[in-house]
Amino acid sequence: MTQLKFTYFDFHGGRGEPARLAMHIGNIAFEDYRFAFADFAEVRKSTPFGQVPTLHVDGVQVTQSDAITRYVGKLAGLYPSDPFQALLCDEVMDVVEDANVKFGATFGMTGDALKEARTALVNGPIPMYLRWLQSQLQAHGGAYFCDGRLTIADLKVFAYVRGLNSGRQDHVPTDLVQRIAPQLNAHVQVIAQLPVIAQYYAKFGI
Ligand SMILES: N[C@@H](CCC(=O)N[C@@H](CS)C(=O)NCC(=O)O)C(=O)O
After folding, report:
1. Mutate to test the pocket of ligand 1, among 10, 12, 15, 152 (most ligand atoms within 8 A of CB)
2. What pLDDT shows up at residue 93?
3. Which of 29, 56, 104, 160 is most buried (CB neighbours < 10 A)?
């Protein structure tokens, strides 16, 4: 059996969450190597770009969150086999990643600089991405983003929207998604209530 070791922060979000969820849903055995934020400086030394997540596949270290999520998504049966549905799935994931990259540029900022940068995102790019994601969801029936079923695109958006709603991101109002794209919050609720997802978070006491 292929040995998988997934390395990411010890929290339930970010770029690592879709892959962790996909492996759980697919009942794929893996070592879930979680580390504290305080240990990142040390952990990053063992990664090629000083970034996480990484996935070791039989000892081979692989980077890039979406490539990893697609790989485990295929193993878990959560990636479309139809090329056009796969394209739609990838498109949604890449849009969320564009949003992540813009947001990531504000990490490390403090004080007024952080406030200004986050406020600019909240007033521009983030609503743009949220509106587009909501329109994609609607265009594909309202329940799932593609393939008429749960895929890794849903997991990627789920983790992103939960992060925005969490209150953990300074200067991002917790009602932003609800104001701009309420159907994304309804989607989060549906995903969170799937027995396999509810069971996953219950394991962590969430
Ligand atoms: N393209 C990479 C980006 C990874 C990335 O930026 N990860 C963040 C944590 S979510 C990180 O390690 N940031 C530290 C840095 O870039 O210095 C991916 O998708 O995996």
Report:
1. 15
2. 98
3. 160
E strands, the chain, in order:
4-9, 31-35, 54-57, 60-63
Q: Are 106 and 117 in contact (CB under 8 A)?
A: yes
Q: Calculate the average pLDDT of the chain.
A: 98
Distance CA 14, CA 100 (A): 9
Distance of CA 54 from the midpoint of ligand 1 (Å): 10
Burial class (CB in 10 A: 0-12, 13-18, 19+), 186: middle
The reported pLDDT for the residue numbered 200 is 98
Binned at pLDDT 50, 70 and 90, residue 60 comes out as very high
Report the sign of the C-alpha dihedral through residues 40, 41, 45, 49, in that order: positive
φ and ψ of 54, to 5 deg: -130, 160
Q: What's this model's pTM, rounded to 2 decimal places?
A: 0.98
